[in-house]
Design a protein that fits this description.
- By secondary structure, the chain is mostly helical.
- The protein folds into two domains: 52 residues; 36 residues, no CATH class.
- The protein is built from four helices and three strands, in the order βααββαα.
- The chain has a three-stranded antiparallel β-sheet.
- Helix 1 crosses helix 2.
């Protein structure tokens, strides 16, 4: 069975970013380290799939979300944790 790899262009399409962003995220260690062959970079497809699955479990916050919406999202996440794990969490009050 052949090992499936992804090059920079394929990875950029998967994560919906530019190739330049992929290079920057590799340099800042946001993405998993690539396999380097000469000047080219490759990733095992399974490594990227695992990385994206782990990443999708993290709550993503839009860059330009208002503080009140952010707090409401936080409170909803805390209530879900309370319900799922039987933890008592006091919601943060909204400031108007």
């Amino acid at each position: 069975m052949p090992i499936e790899t992804l090059d920079v262009e394929e990875l950029a399409k998967i994560i919906k970013e530019t190739k330049i962003t992929v290079y920057r995220q590799v340099a800042s260690e946001v993405l998993p380290p690539p396999i380097r062959i000469g000047r080219k970079m490759f990733w095992l497809k399974t490594t990227i799939e695992n990385f994206l699955n782990e990443k999708s479990q993290v709550v993503k916050i839009p860059k330009h979300e208002s503080p009140s919406k952010l707090k409401a999202r936080h409170n909803a996440a805390m209530q879900k944790l309370s319900k799922d794990h039987g933890i008592t969490v006091k919601p943060q009050p909204h400031k108007q």
